[in-house]
Amino acid sequence: MMPINLLLKLYKLFHGITIMPRTPAFSKLEHEFLLKAISTGVRLDQRDMLEYRKIGISFGIDYGCCTVEIGETKVMAQVAAEMDRPRESRPSEGRLNVHVEMSTIAFPSFDPTKPGELGVGIQRMLERSIILSRAVDLEALCVRVGEKSWTIHLHVHVLSHDGNLIDCASIAAITALKHFRYPDVSVIGQDIVIHTMEEKHPIPLTVHHMPLYVSLAFFKGCERLAIDPTYLEEKVMDGKIILSINKHKELCSLQMNGQMNITKEQILRCTEIAAVRAKTLTELILNAIKTDTDDKKLGKTKSQTVLEKSKDNKEILKSELTVNSQTSEEIQIANMSINEDAVTDDAIKNGHNNKTEKPYWLTQHDRQTCSIGDGKVNAWSGDGAESSLGIFKALRADTQPEEKSEDENEDSEEEVVILDDSALET
Amino acid sequence: MTGNLLDGKIVVPGDVFSAADENFKLVNKIKLGPGLTTNQAQKIIVCKSGTLRYKSPDTLWVDCHQQRYIPSKGENVIGVITSRQGDFYKVDIGASDQAVLNCMSFEGASKRNRPNVSNGDVVFGQLIVANKDVEPELSCIDPSSGKANGMGILSGDGILFTISLNLGRKLLSPDCVLLPELGSHVSFEIIIGLNGKVALFCKSAQQSVCIMNLIKATEYMSNTDIMKALNKQFF
Amino acid sequence: MDLNSSLPLGNLQCEQKVLKNTDGSAMYTAGETNVLVGVYGPADCKESKQDVKQAVVEVNFRPKIGIPGVAEKYMEKFVCKICESVILRSFHPRTAFSVIVQVMQDQGSLLSCAINAVSMALQDAGISMRCMPVAVTVALQKKEKEDNEMKDDSKKFVISPSTKDEEESVAIATFVFDSAQYDSISAYACGPMTSDEYRECLRLAKEASKHIVRFFRDSVSRKVSTDIR
């Protein structure tokens, strides 16, 4: 079995790409119009600023095969399992590898031989949110310590690019992992017997939690916020915040791309929006998997067809472009920020935030530092007023075992809320 | 005309008609439009799928749904300027080759009075050279009169979007009711290029976006469906 | 766009204009095998690979799992040759056509499913073709009856075999016909078979292809029927 790198090199030699059709040129007219429209709260597909496009999830006949569409963006994920040696550094765990394939079918300038910045970005982000946050139980994949374990390969194929690839890819990835089943194994003495699907029921993967990415794009000097940007919107945005969050409001990964100057209130608001979004998405995914499992039990073998197709005679009015029970979300988000209009973001610009309750996942150390997750003693000296040696433990509903390290620096004009006065052992 | 028997027939590539058929007994020469070609045996072969159209006395063509533009002489197209090479601008018109536009092909342009054109500008022009062997050439003035006739750089608060080629032709045909009806309710300025690009100028962004979505939705609609949709929108 | 044919071709389904950025696309399903094809063309081509007299055709075959290997490369060459013979390449010199085939689900007869999908995608993109290629796979299953007196081989021809059928068969052949005259464009056969058996497979495939052409015509007319006069 040749190593992957060598195979890739051979493939590249074999297959130099002949053509890459040119990307259509982007005119100044479109650029200016898009920015002007967004500053008045109008998007090209007549969505609200915090509205998602239609999502469709469909499954194939194989376990672990899933296609997700968000509007015109389509991604397919397929999970496969292979029996292999475990990593030497972790002999009692299986492995999970993520492969992202960007082919020309998705966008004219994608080169199938080179994943490119976008492809590598998606791969790294998926690895961070799924593998590093321990979403999948890898220890259960070990068959014989140090010798045999399952290696799970997650193949993500990008089929169509119309913006927001990372959201779509993460939904597809998590759904495929949740849907996947690997063959049952019996260890009899020295022999390991892998049973076929007919002999014994295959086992589903243990997915502890489902971290899903949510992208929020900022426009016009970070005055305007839009969720789920399309390809054209991505071309004119200042930058994006990409968060990986699960339905328990646990943040698994946070990334900011682009030239942005945003305040802490904006970031916190983004996380609130993302949390609501992740919850809805998780429900949608679990429903879809359940429907598919029921169908499979009944023996309904439908080939991979799209669940929701947009009609040819689309309704032109805005009200028709509603997303799966999205409207209740908007109300929720609006209620969360008091004295703030959910659509016009003037309040974000002013940095005015009436929330006095600190989120339970945020630990305040002193006037200038706070963190998320368990950590060590704060070694930074404060401004002298409060003791920097005293660490304040936030009152949390349930303790989070995962370790996340994101440090946020707070401006000093906010009131420090002292939650608990006790020293934390390292 | 017996050719009317063929009009409206749905064809796929590979369908064959004989020129010596009953249908064309009365004509000597048959003009074949896009989507049709001949083979050695003097038979007419369909090479694109779509609806066959006949116009008396002797013209046949296929109306096909296509996305990619193939340049054709005399057509008015909208392009985006991508680069400048000496005396020429390179313009992206959505075809396989980029078109060239002479720097002097604007109304009132001279060596001293150069037009103010930069990369990313949108131009509306006519193809003066377009065949399969050579790069297409664009011009923003009428070659005979030297006048612009509405061509040139498009600027203002407008939106540029892409539609399929046959939708563009449909909108421009005198039979289609969409644009006149729309014009009676809303005031707007629209420029439709035969390469599927449309520039739309309207009072507000909201209106522009609304009209754009309306136009895109009429791809597969017949006239009656269009009237129904418009009535829903405005009444 | 469904066709439940009485022939054992399985359920045929086709969806066109599935992808946004390609010039033409089709998602074709035959039985349980599902293939997505995207087509670009005529598009600009690198100077070094250009042909002055006609267009260049390139096919990219992408399996669901793993890196494309030698088998995929062979299928690419096969599909490429078919496209080159069917597309009217002299209409578009110095350009290139790019066909990308993505396997969505493989439950047997993958090659014929892929070729039919490519056919629909090319037609969807409005690319000039002299005909539409139609492909059918036929598998030959032999059961040797161990009879002391007479060895009677009972043959079974399976049209559009599933994965299980393919595993049990002795030989598999894929035939490609043109949609107009039903002439043979190409064939791919592997496994031992006599010339009589080959002829029988060819005959059966030709019969089956007529159903598929009817399905293509049906799909096209549904897409096109709402044009205004």
Automatic annotation (TrEMBL), chain A:
A matching Pfam family: RNase_PH
Statement: the UniProt record of this protein carries the keyword Methyltransferase: no
Broad class of where this protein is predominantly found: cytoplasm
Residue stretches of biased makeup (Acidic residues): 404-426
Location in or out of the cell: Cytoplasm; Nucleus
Residue ranges annotated for the Exoribonuclease phosphorolytic domain, each copy included: 51-183, 209-275
Gene3D superfamilies recorded: GHMP Kinase, N-terminal domain
InterPro entries on file: ExoRNase_PH_dom1 (IPR001247), ExoRNase_PH_dom2 (IPR015847), ExoRNase_PH_dom2_sf (IPR036345), Exosome_comp_Rrp42_subfam (IPR050590), PNPase/RNase_PH_dom_sf (IPR027408), Ribosomal_Su5_D2-typ_SF (IPR020568), Rrp45 (IPR033100)
Disordered as annotated region, ranges: 397-426
Domain of life: Eukaryota
This protein's name: Exosome complex component RRP45
Organism: Clavelina lepadiformis
Organismal lineage: Eukaryota, Metazoa, Chordata, Tunicata, Ascidiacea
UniProtKB/TrEMBL annotation, chain B:
Main location: cytoplasm
Family annotation (Gene3D superfamilies): 2.40.50.100, K Homology domain, type 1, Nucleic acid-binding proteins
InterPro entries: Exosome_RNA_bind1/RRP40/RRP4 (IPR026699), KH_dom_type_1 (IPR004088), KH_dom_type_1_sf (IPR036612), NA-bd_OB-fold (IPR012340), RRP40_KH-I (IPR049469), Rrp40_N_euk (IPR041054), Rrp40_S1 (IPR037319)
One Pfam family recorded for the sequence: Rrp40_N
Sorted UniProt keywords: Cytoplasm, Exosome, Nucleus, RNA-binding, rRNA processing
Record-given protein name: Ribosomal RNA-processing protein 40
Family of this protein: Belongs to the RRP40 family.
Domain K Homology: 158-198
Subcellular localization: Cytoplasm; Nucleus, Nucleolus
Domain Exosome complex exonuclease Rrp40 N-terminal, first and last residues per copy: 30-68
Membrane spanning residue stretches: none
Keyword RNA-binding recorded: yes
The species this protein was found in: Clavelina lepadiformis
SUPFAM superfamilies tied to this protein: Eukaryotic type KH-domain (KH-domain type I), Nucleic acid-binding proteins, Ribosomal L27 protein-like
UniProtKB/TrEMBL annotation, chain C:
Main location, first listed in the record: nucleus
CDD domains linked: RNase_PH_RRP46 (cd11372)
Keywords: Exosome, Nucleus, rRNA processing
UniProt subcellular location: Nucleus
Span of domain Exoribonuclease phosphorolytic: 11-127
Family: Belongs to the RNase PH family.
Name recorded for this polypeptide: Exoribonuclease phosphorolytic domain-containing protein
Protein's organism: Clavelina lepadiformis
